[in-house]
Specification:
It is a single chain. With 423 residues, the chain is mainly β. It is 2% helix and 47% strand. It has one domain (3-419): 6 Propeller (Neuraminidase). The strands form eight sheets. Strands 1, 2, 3, 30, 32, 33 and 34 form a seven-stranded antiparallel β-sheet that branches. Strands 15-22-21-19-18 form a five-stranded mixed β-sheet, with no helix packed on it. The longest helix is centred in the middle third of the chain and has 8 residues, at 161-168.
């Protein structure tokens, strides 16, 4: 594939939490492929949620999978089928696939390596309709307002059994090398301090009828650390270690030592504050054996926290960039850490030593111009594609088709980045 631009540049390293940039002696060699168009909307598509929110993941057959949303961005559409594509050539070309429904559910479904050659998929599902099931919830434990909706929290132990089973035992599918097929199973999540939640309908983009109760799924691949899978979770709400109830969306660390069959609460990564959620986390190992977690806050900034003890304790989140939603974060084989984010625009930054304490100024894939939702949804997905390379998927709301008409596009780019020799 033709490389459309290439650059070697002096890196400005910005310490996480610092307000300025310092010149560094590092040099990066970066090459970026032309974007590959995976899917195009009809000309003139402007509906929010349609042709947005791409998700990349590896499949057990060696293919790369890409899903994206093509319906309204609302809790009520969780569990609907997403359009799906696969690539057999490292992202150069894509073919639609029509496989079992559980592999194509929205939003942000991923399949991931669970260890021992096994793959696991824990997809989103339709919310539990409390009214249809004639279920009565206990007294409300607390509430907070976020994302245009009032979040109502209930103590899990006091909820009806059907609610408990729905939340604590999600449906999953596992692929094993011996069977070479996906088989259904139930996984179990830690219920100590667990809080069931639903949203009251307020007209916001994420609001849902007050009778709908959602549950968590795996939006990103967990990180493998020794014999454990480690995951940053924010859709399952827990009491804080001191017993306090969440003041907003919290992000916690959960772990599994049995290839994803059971998950235990390990530590609080970041506690949300009134009017500032700690959400949409992305976890990755660092080159020095730790863990890094990048999180969205509203209205900003994008923040980063670190753990040196496999997720038990975490540093206070520090600003990484002045904005950013649904970030991607991966550690390349060459030891470099990559973060992607957007809204407005789409951008990538690099930590050349892979420790995550210092970062380059962002490279721009879509410029941060116009309104926050004018050019792209800003959601990105990263996937390692070799020692020095990775794929990034994102949306472009102003793509021109062959006739010059404006369409929404789902794009994938391959990017190569490595330290300049001798640096």
């Amino acid at each position: 594939m033709k490389r459309f631009w290439r650059m070697m540049f002096c890196v400005l390293l910005v310490p996480a939490g610092a307000g300025g940039a310092n010149e560094a002696d590092a040099m990066l060699d970066m090459k970026m492929d032309e974007p590959v168009v995976v899917a195009l909307s009809k000309p003139g598509e402007t509906r929010w949620g349609h042709h947005q929110f791409p998700a990349l993941s590896h499949r057990p057959d060696g293919q790369i999978q890409l899903l994206y949303s093509n319906s309204a961005d609302a809790v009520g559409t969780y569990g609907d089928s997403d359009p799906g594509f696969v690539s057999n050539d490292g992202g150069k070309s894509w073919t639609p696939f029509d496989e079992p429904d559980f592999l194509r559910r929205k939003p942000h479904l991923t399949t991931f390596d669970a260890g021992g050659g096994e793959f696991l998929c824990v997809p989103p599902v339709k919310p539990l309709d409390l009214r249809a099931a004639s279920l009565k919830l206990p007294a409300q434990a607390s509430s907070f307002f976020e994302c245009g909706a009032q979040f109502e929290l209930y103590r899990f132990a006091d909820c009806p059994k059907q609610v408990q089973d729905f939340i604590a035992a999600p449906d999953a599918w596992r692929w094993t090398p011996a069977a070479k097929v996906w088989s259904a199973e139930k996984i179990r999540i830690d219920t100590r301090g667990l809080l069931a939640w639903k949203t009251a309908k307020t007209g916001g983009p994420d609001s849902a009828p007050s009778t709908d109760m959602p549950r968590a799924w795996f939006e990103h691949p967990p990180v493998q650390v020794g014999n454990e899978l480690v995951y940053a979770e924010y859709r399952t709400m827990y009491q804080q270690p001191d017993g306090a109830l969440p003041a907003n969306m919290n992000t916690v660390c959960i772990v599994s030592a049995d290839r994803g069959k059971t998950w235990q609460w390990r530590g609080l990564i970041a506690a949300g504050k009134p009017k500032q959620p700690m959400c949409e986390p992305m976890l990755a190992p660092t080159s020095d054996g730790g863990l890094a977690c990048v999180l969205r806050t509203d209205p900003g900034p994008l923040v980063i926290a670190f753990s040196r003890d496999r997720g038990r304790t975490w540093t206070v989140p520090a600003p990484l960039h002045k904005f950013g939603v649904f970030p991607g974060l991966i550690l390349l084989e060459n030891g470099m850490l990559v973060v992607s984010f957007g809204r407005p625009g789409v951008h990538v930054k690099f930590s050349p030593d892979g420790k995550g304490a210092q970062w380059t100024e962002p490279a721009e894939l879509i410029p941060a111009t116009g309104k926050w939702n004018e050019r792209t949804c800003g959601y990105t997905s990263l996937l390692a594609a070799g020692k020095d390379e990775f794929l990034i998927a994102y949306s472009d709301f102003q793509h021109k088709d062959a006739q010059g008409r404006t369409c929404k596009a789902i794009l994938v780019r391959r990017i190569l980045v490595k330290p300049k020799p001798g640096k």
